[in-house]
Amino acid sequence: xxxxxxxxxxxxxxxxxxxxxxxxxxxxxxxxxxxxxxxxxxxxxxxxxxxxxxxxxxxxxxxxxxxxxxxxxxxxxxxxxxxxxxxxxxxxxxxxxxxxxxxxxxxxxxxxxxxxxxxxxxxxxxxxxxxxxxxxxxxxxxxxxxxxxxxxxxxxxxxxxxxxxxxxxxxxxxxxxxxxxxxxxxxxxxxxxxxxxxxxxxxxxxxxxxxxxxxxxxxxxxxxxxxxxxxxxxxxxxxxxxxxxxxxxxxxxxxxxxxxxxxxxxxxxxxxxxxxxxxxxxxxxxxxxxxxxxxxxxxxxxxxxxxxxxxxxxxxxxxxxxxxxxxxxxxxxxxxxxxxxxxxxxxxxxxxxxxxxxxxxxxxxxxxxxxxxxxxxxxxxxxxxxxxxxxxxxxxxxxxxxxxxxxxxxxxxxxxxxxxxxxxxxxxxxxxxxxxxxxxxxxxxxxxxxxxxxxxxxxxxxxxxxxxxxxxxxxxxxxxxxxxxxxxxxxxxxxxxxxxxxxxxxxxxxxxxxxxxxxxxxxxxxxxxxxxxxxxxxxxx
Length: 541
Ligand code: PEP
Ligand code: MG
Prior knowledge:
By secondary structure, this protein is an alpha/beta fold. 47% of the residues lie in helices and 15% in strands. It has helices at 34-62, 65-77, 84-94, 98-115, 119-140, 162-167, 186-194, 205-208, 230-250, 278-283, 295-298, 307-321, 356-362, 364-377, 393-412, 430-434, 436-440, 450-457, 476-491, 509-515, 527-540; strands at 2-3, 5-8, 11-19, 153-157, 173-178, 198-200, 214-218, 223-226, 258-259, 265-272, 289-293, 325-329, 382-387, 422-427, 445-448, 495-498, 519-522. The strands form 2 sheets. Strands 1-8-7-3-4-5-6-2 form an 8-stranded mixed beta sheet. Strands 10-11-12-13-14-15-16-17 form an 8-stranded parallel barrel, surrounded by 4 helices. The longest helix is centred in the first third of the chain and has 29 residues, at 34-62. It starts with a strand and ends with a helix.
């Protein structure tokens, strides 16, 4: 049995298709007709643009709007003067072939980006490499798209780019396995939305497996069995049957509301990053939206979203959710989430630096646009506003003051604003958890952001696989801080949610229930299984 990182849940039995990375040979050639070489490059750029537009459309229909945005940013690379104009300059000044020029500039940009130790830069470098490959393949007439004709195919590759993943035909491809990659790479996020089981970080799976080998893929536990025996296949089929039956049965819980023995409603909500994500949250029977990560509205574009654009997004989410609660978090940019058009400079420790509410309180101009949009949208549903990365009470007071200012301005401008908006904070910094009782006197609610709380409590980077063994939600110190937060809030009659990954973690759910967590918010696909687990625990009592 081979093991990797279980990245997208599900089981599959199929035959391996090894995706070979065609090695492209680029020679430096002397060109006599420079202008026709430039024309050749322009044609290839147009072809690339068309292909990317096609991929964007397919992805938007088959996967989702948010996932399709990556191809929009790929299209933007085609207009990047640092890349394309520079390549044209090289063709003109050195009279060389266009594939050579593109390769030169692309490699230079990629190596500059990789020299900066930053997750965002690594992703950008991967995007530029991907787009560069596509332009060069079009110049050389090489087709490297994943074309699969047989059903039940398991794609085995060193890595899959977002374009590769978007092209996977769901009726043929039943799983994919890659040598490299992490749980949060673009391809994996797409696989989850497409419900294709995936295991990444399998090191040398492309070497171990041959074309046509039979594979059993267990995307729940991250296991692969190569050329299984009949007994292993039978056992695996029973596992799949059970999994499918359970999944089907879970749908019965869609409209079930959960109450504990004291008749307290325990809410199970969904996390979203865009208006489109609301459908899945509703389909899975969520009691509300526990976290709307609004920073995604600011990404993959060249300027800030206007008040009107933001207002329309917030209004759409609130209307779709009807009278159910919708917690919208204000801009949480910084750390690993950067905006191309907002230069905040280099930082030694971006996760401890100029991010989220710290940035917003410094750039009140940006902050106010979002707050105005939120307040204007508040009359269309059950809005709750939440501030991220609050570390001391003064920050919350300042946020609240600016929110009040915006409200007065809007009322003066004759806008309607709801007067029952709850205002809360994320608890993701240990100082806030420790002083929860004090904060609870002033806020309406807490939502515990364990993704960050764990990294700050254990001084353990949430993105670094080398220290991931320390990143443990069940560490007693983390649990203590969670308990302190819940106790502090309840002592002041306030409610507490959790919107970090831990809220949907099977191992953690019993403890969170025991502590009296009021609201669990998670990715849509985890909602029904969390409901079942919580109901089972409560019914056993
Ligand atoms: C968290 O930190 O737990 C959280 C939900 O915020 P994000 O993952 O966006 O940092
Ligand atoms: Mg966070």
